[in-house]
What we know:
The structure holds 2 protein chains of 2 kinds.
Chain A: E1 4-7, E2 10-14, E3 19-25, E4 29-37, E5 43-49, E6 55-58, E7 61-66, E8 71-76, E9 85-93, E10 96-102, E11 106-111
Parallel strand pairs in A: 2-11
Antiparallel strand pairs in A: 1-3, 3-8, 4-5, 4-9, 6-7, 7-8, 9-10, 9-11
Chain B: E1 4-7, E2 10-13, E3 19-25, E4 31-38, E5 42-51, E6 54-57, E7 65-66, E8 76-78, E9 87-94, E10 103-104, E11 108-112
Parallel strand pairs in B: 2-11
Antiparallel strand pairs in B: 1-3, 3-8, 4-5, 4-9, 5-6, 7-8, 9-10, 9-11
Amino acid sequence: xxxxxxxxxxxxxxxxxxxxxxxxxxxxxxxxxxxxxxxxxxxxxxxxxxxxxxxxxxxxxxxxxxxxxxxxxxxxxxxxxxxxxxxxxxxxxxxxxxxxxxxxxxxxxxxx
Amino acid sequence: xxxxxxxxxxxxxxxxxxxxxxxxxxxxxxxxxxxxxxxxxxxxxxxxxxxxxxxxxxxxxxxxxxxxxxxxxxxxxxxxxxxxxxxxxxxxxxxxxxxxxxxxxxxxxxxxx
Lengths: 112, 113
């Protein structure tokens, strides 16, 4: 099973709607990172969360970290076509300090 | 511009023909890593390097080699490619492993026939 589980796996929303993507870890995490990937292209770093309860925002995207639950959420307000892509969470997990472990991603489509 | 540059972007090759995918970063990062991305499996680490002349295996190192002779370069070598190495490859770098987000290259889509 995946050490980082993302839900949902895919999402289709109408432009202007809000949405939330979740990332849950099966292990203690030391930092949680959110990335966006356009199909077949590189990953763009969005945000890093390091402390429990931390919340960061960039434009219309807000990410929160619940350290006790080993979970993070990514919330997009008033979605736009430019938000479409694959969102991946990554984390440094207990026992795997040499790498970022990634979830399998959430594919977001925004319809007009 | 701070970036990780991978080449080539696309490559089609035949089984057994040695190839090298180059990766270069201009940010003086100590940590570099290679990942492959496959549908349903996500990103899996192949090899990583904490610094010059220091490399180590990731989760899926079989069939790959790397070297880190200079800080900026971290090439991925496939000595004898096989069709199961058909994948999307990413090079990434970071100041150090927990310093912050990785900077990723644009990816290399490799097809082995």
